[in-house]
Each structure stands twice: as structure tokens, then as C-alpha cells.
């Protein structure tokens, strides 16, 4: 099996590769020499390609795509032309223009994108009866201080990577849509810089959501935090239930990275994505709308 790591723009493909290396030959393309050097240091047998076209010409069975958001539509178009299964590391779009460019692509059922938390053991398999739910809340605690130093400035730039509202907010929106479905819209959003004053975006944010069946929801984004954790609370008439997702002793498993790669390998084997693109499209629309509103 041959898997192409197309881009190393965030930390996620480095984590993905540690699992994939147990199953496949790795081919990597990344224009930044320092990121590439770090990757090949961990995976010295990986085949290095000088361009995305060269990487895709190796005939991969699957592609993990991780490039800066403005480059995703063009790069994904090239991957789609190969027919290979593709996992696009989150978020696939951060602006309205990027989303509209994705909408023009022939995205097939072996393309998956989104938050790894959907596949975290603490959350995977969680189901609800929407008729019993009054409201829901997702809380994302993930420190964004690395951006305050200028690291990966494109992620912190609202018009490029979407900033904290999009890049961290995707985790909360993903979990709620996984439970309640894609028939959802943004009602409002707000963000603020409370601690990291040099950010281009925000370090705290909130979104208000409403599903077509009347369920309301909120996503809280806490970007100043010593610990990384995520939670979803379901409010019913007579009780509330909270699911907490943490890394624990094995973050690759606990945060869903391992489960995500298992789902991706199922697509490589010929199966459809377990995450319908309609859900991903709905999540991206909420995030883009929140960015515009905030």
C-alpha cells in the first residue's frame, strides 16, 4: 500500500504518519525544508517528492492532504483526478471563497475531512434521539499561544486559515453535527482577544446554532488553556449528560487520530467515507458564517 502525505502544513500529518507507517509505504511532499527535514528524520524510508504532481504520479492508494487553506481547492482537484481515497486534514475551508471553490469540485464518496474527535473512543458510538434533546453545548479547550509568536501565521489570519474561530471551532461544531445532523445554521458568533493580544484572530469565541427541528446549541472556544480537552453536554427535560474527550496516556488513540486513520484506511480499501460530505459541507458553512459574523 502506498500513501502520499501531501503537505505538512500543520502538526496533524506528522501524527497521522506515525500510524500510517505501520501499514504503508509513505511518500511525502512538502515545500518547507524544515518541516520536510523533521518528517524524514522520523521516517527515513519515506520517498520524497519534489512537487505535488510528482507525489501523485507515484500511484498512491490514498492521500492525506494538509496544505494551507487557500491552497486546498486546487490541491484537492489534483488528488480527485487520481481517483485515490483522500483525507483532508481539518478544516477544508475557512472562507466563503474557499468553500465556493470546493463546491465546484467533483467530490466523491471516498473523500473525508473534519475533526479527529469524531473518532475518539469516548465519543465514537454516542447517539441521541433529537426529539428528546432541548439544547446542546460543545466546549473546546485548546491553547492557541503558539500563534501569538507568529507560528503558522496563515492559520491565525481570518482571511486565510480562519483563525481560532474556525481552526479550533471546527472541533465543537463537528461533534454536534455528528450527533444531530447537518440541517443546522449559525444564529450568531462573537470572538475576543482576552490574553494573547498579538493574535490576528481571537483567543476566545462562541457560536450559537439552531437545527431545523428547533434544537439550539452553543460552541464555546477557549484558546487560553493549560490542558487540552473537549466536551459535549446534552440537555434533556429531566437530565443533562456530558461526554468528555481527553488525550489521556495515549493521545493518538484518546483524541481520535488512530480512529481517523482506521476510517481512512477503510476508504483506501474501497469503502465510502463514514462521514458524508453533506455533514462536512454543513460544518464548513457554519464555520465560515461564524468567521464572517465575528
From TrEMBL:
Pfam families: GFO_IDH_MocA_C3. Residues 132-227 form the GFO/IDH/MocA-like oxidoreductase domain. InterPro entries: Gfo/Idh/MocA_Oxidoreductases (IPR051450), GFO_IDH_MocA-like_dom (IPR055170), NAD(P)-bd_dom_sf (IPR036291). It comes from the Bacteria. This is Putative dehydrogenase. It comes from Nonomuraea muscovyensis.
Amino acid at each position: 500500500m502506498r500513501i502520499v502525505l501531501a503537505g505538512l502544513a500543520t502538526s496533524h500529518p506528522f501524527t497521522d504518519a506515525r500510524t500510517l507507517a505501520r501499514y504503508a509505504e509513505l511518500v511525502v511532499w512538502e515545500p518547507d525544508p524544515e518541516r520536510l527535514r523533521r518528517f524524514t528524520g522520523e521516517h527515513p524510508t519515506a520517498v520524497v517528492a519534489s512537487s505535488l504532481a510528482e507525489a501523485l504520479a507515484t500511484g498512491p492508494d490514498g492521500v492525506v492532504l494538509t496544505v494551507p487553506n487557500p491552497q486546498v481547492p486546487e490541491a484537492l482537484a489534483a488528488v480527485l483526478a487520481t481517483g485515490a481515497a483522500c483525507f483532508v486534514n481539518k478544516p477544508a475551508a475557512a472562507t466563503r471563497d474557499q468553500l465556493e471553490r470546493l463546491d465546484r469540485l467533483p467530490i466523491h464518496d471516498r473523500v473525508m475531512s473534519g475533526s479527529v474527535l469524531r473518532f475518539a473512543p469516548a465519543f465514537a458510538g454516542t447517539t441521541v434521539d433529537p426529539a428528546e434533546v432541548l439544547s446542546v453545548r460543545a466546549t473546546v479547550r485548546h491553547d492557541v499561544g503558539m500563534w501569538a509568536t507568529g507560528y503558522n501565521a496563515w492559520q491565525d489570519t481570518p482571511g486565510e486559515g480562519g483563525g481560532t474561530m474556525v481552526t479550533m471551532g471546527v472541533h465543537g461544531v463537528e461533534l454536534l453535527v455528528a450527533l444531530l445532523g447537518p440541517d443546522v445554521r449559525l444564529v450568531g458568533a462573537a470572538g475576543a482577544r482576552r490574553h494573547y493580544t498579538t493574535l490576528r484572530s481571537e483567543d476566545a469565541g462562541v457560536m450559537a446554532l439552531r437545527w431545523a427541528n428547533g434544537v439550539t446549541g452553543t460552541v464555546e472556544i477557549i484558546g487560553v488553556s493549560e490542558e487540552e480537552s473537549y466536551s459535549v453536554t446534552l440537555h434533556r427535560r429531566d437530565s443533562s449528560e456530558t461526554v468528555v474527550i481527553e488525550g489521556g496516556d495515549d493521545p493518538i488513540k484518546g483524541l481520535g487520530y488512530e480512529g481517523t486513520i482506521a476510517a481512512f484506511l477503510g476508504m483506501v480499501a474501497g469503502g465510502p467515507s463514514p462521514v458524508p460530505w453533506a455533514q462536512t459541507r454543513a460544518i464548513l458553512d457554519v464555520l465560515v458564517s461564524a468567521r464572517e459574523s465575528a
